[in-house]
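During the reporting period the student researcher (J.K.) took over the structure-prediction task from the postdoctoral fellow and processed the backlog of single-chain submissions. One of the processed entries is reproduced below for the supervisory committee.
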Amino acid sequence: MMRALLISLAALALLGCSEKSQSQADARVSGDVAPHQGAANDPYVIKGWTAGNKTEWDTQMRTRAQTQNEYVKTN
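J.K. obtained the following structure tokens:
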């Protein structure tokens, strides 16, 4: 009984130490698109934004970054 318990604890300890590989070679290519081309119908996009408009995307990202900048808020 004690021997079986020790063997099962050892097996669980070895399983707990295993880890999946996280290298890029093992990753499957998902075919992502550029950020400014996605989420045309997402409820969280800003009203008036059209998917694929890189200039508007860059402007919005710059504005968003400046509103989150603590230095700009305090001065």
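The committee noted the following: The chain has a mean pLDDT of 78.
J.K. will present the remaining backlog at the next meeting.
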